[in-house]
Amino acid sequence: MGAYEDVFRASVEDREGFWLRAAEALDWHKAPTRALDDSNPPFYRWFPDGEINVAHNALDRHVEAGRGEQAALIYDSPVTDTKRTYTYAQLRDEVATFAGVLRELGVGPGDRVVIYMPMVPEAAIAMLACARLGAVHSVVFGGFAAKELAVRIDDAAPKVVVSASCGIEGKRVIEYKPLLDKALELSAHKPDKQVILQRPQAEAAMGDNDVDWADAVGKASPADPVPVKSTDPLYVLYTSGTTGKPKGVVRDGGGYATALAWSMPNVYDVSAGQTIFTASDVGWVVGHSYIVYAPLLAGATTVLYEGKPVGTPDAGQFWRVMSEYGVRSMFTAPTAFRALKKEDPNGEYARKYDLSGLKYLFLAGERLDPETYRWASELLDIPVIDHWWQTETGWPIVANPAGIELLEIKPGSPTRPLPGWDIQILDTDGRPVPAGEDGAIVAKLPLPPGAFPTLWNDDERFVQSYMSAFEGYYLTGDGGRIDSDGYVFVMGRTDDVINVAGHRLSTGGMEEVLASHPDVAECAVIGVADQMKGQIPRGFVVLKAGVDASAEGYEDKLRAELVQMVRDQVGAVASLKEVAVVPALPKTRSGKILRKTMRGIADGADEPVPSTIESVDVLEALRPVLRKD
Ligand code: COA
Ligand code: AMP
To answer: Which atom of ligand 1 is nearest to the CA of 286?
Structure first.
């Protein structure tokens, strides 16, 4: 049996021992005596009697162990022409001081802090400062519009919001402060204060409740780490569900830190003193786990990159970063590599740099299409590792465990389940399907440490959305199969969540925006395949009876208004560019819109007419629109 099989078996045969041993990689203020509390399923708790501070483990512990002078975080920003390295000692001090600022503003254990920031080191510093105080951060991705930010502020009810004057998107400067001000106008909850990092590219106008980051840091005294219960929340990260209301995924401290610390050497093959470059954003789970927490928990060096794969200014930036900092493992979304391939199909830029230190490319966030896999593998001549995970899980579910044993790669599969994950495929009646057959991908409970214990303030939605479809299993929302070698194939979401350029979005949320237009009677948004972004949304609207659509240019004007509404209310990142006005939407006899059938036709499949359809004529009339004939 191979090393992977041994490790996996150990995690199954002695779950308690396996995770208690993994937890020994960390400093505990009170070491846990047991791993799992399973007394109240489906609410499982990891290391219930442990006490820990995650920021201490990410920073102070390494300084105390003699890594103070090693690089902890390298900020590389081609869009502002800045490079800055923070050693472990420097980062600890910056975090301690900013924790002092937050403490002065009344933030204590359990209080929430919303962080709405671009890819600057201060975003990571603010996250770690919250962790130091035992406060709960909630980072909101900068590409979300004011309304989305407001919804999150209302749900998290933060004491303080931390933001910046602007972000830089390619060559454009995006002012964040007006978006924050607008969000605070829209939200019912009002934080006590906003801390604003002024950036020279656009200075923000400050109001009475705004505190200048630099001023506050200048006056603050450092705060020590506060030990909290292992099961206390470290952060809440909102993610798209099937409705417009995002789900607040809760992450506990002890279980998460244990899982991440385990994953760094075993999955990513990165240990203390080595460098990982994760090109994502701190607003997503990939950024939380593999830009900020995991690399630092492992005593490694993390690169925080502010820029795009292409156009900032060229397709050589990823390669430059990797050669300049001796990156061992790189992690990004397949869409970034599709962007590189389009811009530089022969990989000329890559050949200009010394990439001899690069051992692996990890890709996740969406399905890795075989063509992108092939291009990246041939160009880099290293293992290209597809792995599958979700905001809810916090770390990979299925991966090629490079640090344990590099398993044979089957293109199209993220390989095999990691320790702690009992992955099964069920049919609609909850029966296991034979190897090779498609069904719902589920994980048998309990989930391993690191996965979410619940949703913020909403145990009921946690149970209803994830735990009730099949009793005793977590419903991942993805469909797929497991082959006879145990390889998992993830084929896509079975709900209304779509993945646009690796960004998870809700078509239901976009539908709510379209439906709010006074001329729209009903609508549907579906995710269709896109060569670059993986998927993009397309909208279809039916006009209200009595709307006069005969005026010249009416439809163009309506389409432009609808596109702008989604941009303003969800954010540019939604990338909804196409909306069609149609006479009717195909539905089942019980009134459910046939989104899956529409999606299949738009993707070029020969979709059969469902037996439950209300009117075949409506579907047939829509076929050419969907196919863009
Ligand atoms: N703040 C403000 N606006 C943002 C933003 C942010 N943080 N991030 C994206 N946007 C805007 C973009 O400027 C763009 O606006 P536009 O429509 O006016 O051009 C829009 O949102 C769509 O952004 P994006 O989907 O990122 O498309 P893009 O064309 O700018 O870039 C890629 C495409 C593939 C290069 C880019 O998505 C990428 O690098 N992806 C990497 C993968 C990744 O980060 N995945 C996250 C999870 S791992
Ligand atoms: P997020 O919560 O933003 O990380 O998005 C999670 C979703 O992205 C999953 O439910 C999948 O649909 C998709 N996803 C992530 N990684 C992969 C992968 N390696 N292969 C296929 N789909 C993936």
So the answer is: 48
Encode 489-511 in three state secondary structure: EEEEECCCEEEECCEEEEHHHHH
State how far the Cα of 99 lies from the Cα of 94, in Å rounded to an integer.
8
Each residue's pLDDT tens digit, 570-608 = 999 999 999 999 999 999 999 999 999 999 999 998 888
Q: Which amino acid is at 18?
A: F
- In whole angstroms, what separates CA 309 from the centre of its chain? 18
Ligand nearest to the CA of 498: 2
Q: What's the rounded Cα separation, in Å, for the pair 553 and 403?
A: 60
User: Can you tell me which residue has the tokens 């978006």?
Assistant: 179
Residue type (1 letter), 488: V
Neighbouring CB atoms inside 10 A of 225's CB total 25
Other Cβ atoms closer than 10 A to 378: 10
Mean of the per-residue pLDDT values of the chain:
97
For the CA of 502, the closest atom of ligand 2 is: 3
- Do 584 and 617 meet the contact criterion of CB atoms below 8 Å apart? no
Residue 13, C-beta contacts closer than 8 angstroms, at least 6 positions apart: none
User: How many A from CA of 573 to the centre of ligand 1?
Assistant: 6
Q: Which residues pair with 36 in a beta bridge?
A: 46
Question: What's the whole-model pTM score?
Answer: 0.96
How crowded is residue 560: how many other Cβ atoms within 10 Å of its Cβ? 12
Q: How confident is the model at residue 244 (pLDDT cuts 50, 70, 90)?
A: confident
Q: How far, in Å, is the centroid of ligand 1 from the Cα of 332?
A: 13
Pocket test for ligand 1, best of 503, 531, 536, 577 (most atoms within 8 A of CB): 503
- For residue 460, what are its two tokens? 């009921």
Q: How far is the CA of 140 from the centre of ligand 2 (A)?
A: 19
Q: Are 219 and 95 in contact (CB under 8 A)?
A: no
Task: Express as a percent the part of the chain with pLDDT over 90.
Answer: 95
Q: Domains for the chain: give ranges and CATH numbers.
A: 88-226 (3.40.50.980), 501-627 (3.30.300.30)
- Is the CB of residue 492 below 6 angstroms from any atom belonging to ligand 1? no
**pLDDT tens digits, one per residue of 152-169:** 999 999 999 999 999 999
Beta-carbon count within 10 A of 108 CB:
12
What three-state secondary structure class fits 487? coil
Query: Model confidence over 473-485: pLDDT tens digits?
Result: 999 999 999 999 9
Q: How large is the greatest C-alpha to C-alpha distance in the chain, in angstroms?
A: 75
User: Which residues on adjacent β-strands are paired with residue 303?
Assistant: 74, 277
450 pairs with which residues across the strands?
A: none
Q: Compute, in degrees rounded to 10, the torsion defined by CA atoms 26, 28, 31, 32.
A: -70
Is the link from the previous residue into 313 a cis peptide, with omega within 30 of 0? yes
* CB of 391 closer than 6 angstroms to any ligand 2 atom: yes
**For ligand 2, is residue 335 a contact (CB within 6 Å)?**
no
> How many angstroms does the Cα of residue 385 sit away from the middle of ligand 2?
14
Ligand closest to 278 (CA) is: 1
